[in-house]
Amino acid sequence: MLLAVLFVMHAQDGSLDLGALEKLLKQDRAEAGRMIRQRFKSEELANGITPFEQGTRVLFAFDAGAGKHAVRVTSGGHEIANLRQVDGNLFVAIKEFGDGAGMVLDYQVDGKPRRAGIPLEVYKVNPFVQAPPGGRKGELRDMGEWKSTIFPNTTRKWYVYFPPNLDPAKEYPVLIATDAQWDRDWIANGLENCARERVVPPTVGVFIEPGQDRPGNYSNRSFEYDALTPRYTEFLLDEILPQVEKTVKLSHDPAKRALTGMSSGGICSFTACWERPDQFGAALSFIGSFANIASGASKREGGHNYPFLIRKTDKKPIRVFLQDGSNDLDNEHGSWWICNLQMESALRYKGYDVVWNPGNGFHSTKHARRIFDQALKWWLGSQ
Hints:
Helix content: 25-40%
Radius of gyration: 23 Å
Oligomer: single chain
Structural class: alpha/beta
Number of helices: 11
CATH architecture of the largest domain: 3-Layer(aba) Sandwich
Strand content: 25-35%
């Protein structure tokens, strides 16, 4: 009974503590089953829940209906987990995976697939991207809406992270991040936690949403991020960064001015450095879309051209941090995994300072969050 009370305390926010649940499954399976049914809808359980992750520990649950059943989770025909019956129809398993595990899973009931093609990608929790202990001391300031002239007929929200104890006389490194609508909080956490731990010096973060034609519709995202043009770089240099420098001094050493982004934001980060290496010295690209998205009228104008441009162009004074997973997207625009492999190969062939972080993941930011402190240390740790 004490375990059940402890479990309720952990679960009051609507989440599950899988460590506590695992103990409860050993002592009171019926109670554990009741709590799982409270957390997941009946239709989710009837189809097999999407694997519920806490770090590298994962919960599987399936309501197989009345009768005796054998319920398993498999990958490529191999058993990953054998689910145990915890009440009349509910079958459950909790499994610990290795850090960085990535695979496609199926639920099988009595040897027949019941739900297939479920992606699983798990990592140890990275404290550097969690809320700083005691709360964030720096300020993530909402800068309101920006109406661009370089990208006419668009508006966007944008934000600036100011480190604690801002010194008006000091020049700060700056990290510019795309897709502020999704990634600003955990990146700001990374900047503050890494500075607290002296992994990097205090750094200003600039977080910018893609252009919108109406609130919440990021209609201009691909046009801004995927095209091989200097336009986004001009937008940063002519419109955004001068506004930031009204409040804080930014370093003008390209080595201390970097961009980061996920997916199309990743290629955008590289393009800014490629176009203006005198202004931006490092790109931190995660699941970068170096594919033929911006194909244009010719059907061949997209980012898949970069590996060949890199090989044919004089080396530029930029550094590149690349990450991708072997289960990333593969569609009409290209294979993200192959495109990133080609980027790494071309950069290395040409003698660039490039770090390649391959994994088993999908088109998600999970791996990015796991290694973000490593990326910041690579960029600024020796400066």
